[in-house]
Amino acid sequence: MAGPGGSAAPRTAPPMADLAVYLAATVLLVFAGHRLWTTRGDGADPAQRHVAGFAWCLGTALLFNARATLDAVSRLLPRHYADLLVTHELKTAALTFLVLVAHALTAADRDPHAARRRRRRQVLLAGAVQAGSAILFLLAAVTTDAGRGVLRADRGWALAAYNAVFACYGCFCLLVLVRALARHARRTTSGPLRAGLRMMMLAAASGALWTLWAFNDVASDLSRGEQGLGEDLVSAVLGAVTALLATGGATTSLWGGRLTAPLRWLRARRTYRALEPLWAELHSVLPEIALDGPAAVWRRGPRHAEFALYRRVIEIRDAHLALRPHQEPGLPEEVVRALARAAGPEDAFDRHAVVEAAVIAAALEHKRADRPHEAASARGGAGGAPGPLPRTVEAEAAWLLEVTAAFTRSATVAGVRARARARAAEPVPSSE
Questions:
Q1: What is the pLDDT of residues 157-202, one digit of tens each?
Q2: 363, 402: one domain
Q3: Confidence at residue 432, expressed as pLDDT on a 0 to 100 scale
Q4: CA gap 39, 118 in Å, rounded
Q5: If you average pLDDT over residues 264-292, what whole number do you get?
Q6: Is 432 inside any structural domain?
Q7: In this predicted model, which residue has the larger pLDDT, 46 or 389?
Q8: Domain residue limits at 173
């Protein structure tokens, strides 16, 4: 069958088509079973149950599309009933489940009564489509020409209408789903979840192509009153791609983290090393901040890079706290005024990061000279700098990268450090 409807021309059964069909069916049925098992009990997300219903209906329909399955069930059911009526009804039900998934995704934005009315209307529409399709199929008076591998219809127009109704209803359902997924993806901040939603949108696009392939049968029905038996290679491949994308998108929470783990480790290791200049300066003055030697961390392998980065962030922030007594009161405001007068290369740095880096640089010089200040500023950023307050390790590491860049390359920070070194070298005024 071409697309969800069938093939347009007689053909022998290509082994690759059956292989693709069985692969897609297996993926969908295993996924449906897993999803039903994980959502059993009260309080389960209805969207997940609708996804399982979609996978079960479509996976079962694909089994009936395989030529080997048709040969096996032909002893119990006429081939044209199994190949067209059963598969179309199952696929129509699968498409209805997709619309119910879309409604479940947007239910939180709507009045509960309005959401129930939408679901009820969709179920009634699906029932009308399936009943109408069955009537058109019976009107077509389909018979099987096993020798030529085709299905013949006494009324080709009825069989063409049967395939067209399915294709149009399928495209409508997929459009509703894509709109809901796009709206949901725009609101999602989680990387794996957003990637899963995008994969589901790709699956819907592939499913639309698969559904539209049924119009190949419509042309054949109208011109010759016949269409191919079973699934052709193009339709089978589109079905397999749709199944893999849909299953992958719905299970990103299971495999997404494992797949992206090496990239996270590399990114964490790169960030760890990028923070080395700032950490090394702090460690040279405050060796007690080190929780463990760096060699010991890296001997554990790359998968510990995220933990090593987490510890490095803690060590830097511990050093900030230890430097509080040596921070210059009023220095953040002085740096802000200097930045207002500066131009050119200083514009490349985040101004809050320059303030924090300058406070650290000056405090380090006073710590080396053992010159604490009696009145240290209250913390904002680091020691009075009115900077942002990151809430996650990733955000904190990203912020410290900005501070490190300013600490090592900003002319303003270099000037503050030189003045602080000179002041720290001055004799301590006598208290007498």
A1: 998 999 899 889 988 988 888 888 888 777 766 566 677 778 888 8
A2: yes
A3: 47
A4: 23
A5: 88
A6: no
A7: 46
A8: 15-250
Considering the domain architecture, whether residues 153 and 37 belong to the same structural domain is answered as yes
Q: Identify the helix (H) or strand (E) that includes residue 133.
A: helix 112-140
Query: Quick one: pLDDT at residue 403?
Result: 93
- Do 349 and 382 have their domain in common? yes
Both 276 and 139 in one domain: the answer is no
207 and 322 both lie in a single domain? no
- pLDDT on residue 128: 94
CB 138, CB 60: distance < 8 Å? no
Burial status of residue 305 (CB atoms within 10 A of its CB: 0-12, 13-18, 19 or more): buried
3-class SS of residue 227: strand
* 384 within 8 A of 359, measured Cβ to Cβ: yes
What is the number of alpha carbons within 13 Å of residue 172 lying toward its C-beta?
13
Out of 230, 250, 270, a domain closes at: 250
Residue type, 135: I
Three-class DSSP category at 377: coil
Tokens of 205: 């696009």
- Contacts made by residues 297-300, CB under 8 angstroms, sequence distance 24+: none
Contact 382, 329 (CB under 8 A): no
For 131-152, how does the pLDDT look when each residue is reduced to its tens digit (9 = 90+)?
999 999 889 888 877 677 677 8
Joined tokens for residue 327: 């921070």
Same domain for 207 and 85:
yes
Residue 10 located in a structural domain: no
pLDDT above 50 (res 11): no
Decide if 266 is inside a domain: yes
Say which range, 23-32, 44-53, 367-376, 381-390, has the weakest mean pLDDT: 381-390
